[in-house]
Amino acid sequence: MLAALMLSVLGVDDEVVAADYHLNASAVERLVAWLNLTRPDLSEEMSRQPKALLSCPPEAMHRFLQALTARYGSVEGYLTGVGVRADTLDGLRQVLLKPT
């Protein structure tokens, strides 16, 4: 979620953010396999999670971003609403984006 918020603040299109989120599905699969081998206690808890949560569907990210926009006006509106200063976001853009 943090990566999605950062990408959105940097101006990355929601389609790309959702596709990036979906790439986590293979990492979650590896995590579940590792838990099965090393932490059966946690593996059992993971098995009770909704399959949609573990598959990181792009639609879930779209809904998340749409909900933030509907409630706060934008992802940036959400972040500033929870205490991230606007100059911090501007600083991230300066450091992470190259001028065109």
Can you walk me through this structure?
It is a single chain. The protein has eight helices and no strands. It has 100 residues and is mostly helical. It has one domain (2-96): Protein-Tyrosine Phosphatase, Chain A, CATH 3.90.190.10.
Report strand %: under 5%
What's the architecture in CATH terms? Alpha-Beta Complex
Write down how many β-strands occur, each being a DSSP E stretch of 2 or more residues: 0
Query: Termini, distance in Å?
Result: 27 Å
Instruction: Count structural domains.
Output: 1
Helical percent range? over 70%
Low-confidence stretches: none
Q: What is the 3D form? A: elongated
Q: In the CATH hierarchy, what is the superfamily?
A: Protein tyrosine phosphatase superfamily
Cα-based radius of gyration, to the nearest Å: 16 Å
Mean pLDDT figure: 92
CATH class: Alpha Beta
SS field, number of helical segments: 8
Could you spell the SSE succession in H and E letters?
HHHHHHHH
Q: Helices and strands: which structural class?
A: mainly alpha
Classify the fold: give the CATH topology. Answer: Protein-Tyrosine Phosphatase, Chain A
Q: Sheet with the most strands? A: none
